[in-house]
Amino acid sequence: MNTLDVKEIRKKLQLTQEELGNLIGVSRNTIINYEKGGKIPDSKSTILNNLLNENAQNKNIVNEPEAVYETGFDKKIAESKKEIEKIKEEILKFENKIEQDPTKKVTYEKYISSYEEQIFLLNEIINITLEAKKDFLENNEV
């Protein structure tokens, strides 16, 4: 990867030097150095290429606006819901594996059960967080 590539990637991703640095785990000055011809370690070059490829496949991967939450409670709830969605995807993968190889059904069902327990616990966290938010808002009325 050459210096123009780094700047080109950054511009395609519509990122500042600091934002790109944060994404790949280096400082803004390091990005400036890369853009001026400094040596790019293979590990960072791989990350940059992956970012470019991911963005090409999914235009919203980097350009998606950051969510704004009314309270920290809302952020925790959103994070928990997002985690539940990821777990549901994993459950679907195991359900598909059961269809492909019914002989391993018992093993896969154990994984599914574990994931379902995680969903239950995350829903409990959401409910507790909602209660805490309600209490907080009631006690801090203006």
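(ticket continues) Second input and output from the same batch:
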Amino acid sequence: MKKSLLLLAAMAFATASFAQTTPTTTQLPTHRVHRMGKGEHKTPEQRAEHRTAMLTKKLSLSADQQAKVQQIMLAQTQEGQALKAKYPAKEQRQALHQEMKAGHAKYQAQLQGVLTADQYGKLAAMQKEHHHRGEHGDKQKEKS
């Protein structure tokens, strides 16, 4: 009888100790990982390369188009960086926004000259969807 009680107590202790351990497997996040300050840690060249790769994938750009789009994206990111340095204060955000908006229009016109009509239509649709979804995508709609 003593042996069976001792065995039962040992099993209860072992079960309790296993129940309190947490699994060591790392669960991958199911949501987008927070962007480190919206790409502030990337160089303009890296941002232009990333954007060109994304457009190449989504719009099926030719090698010639890739090179031209890369140059446009590089110029746009460099100009954006220069504008952010020119207007560092929060009070200057309106002026920064206006200049960036003008620059965006200029680079859109350049892209329109490089892309086919079909590709530019897809780009415009992607930008419109991105603009309407905001940074957090459809997750904002789910919360509402």
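Agent notes: The helical segments are 2-19, 44-59, 63-86, 93-114, 117-133, 139-143. The two ends are 62 Å apart (CA to CA). Closing as not reproducible unless the customer responds.
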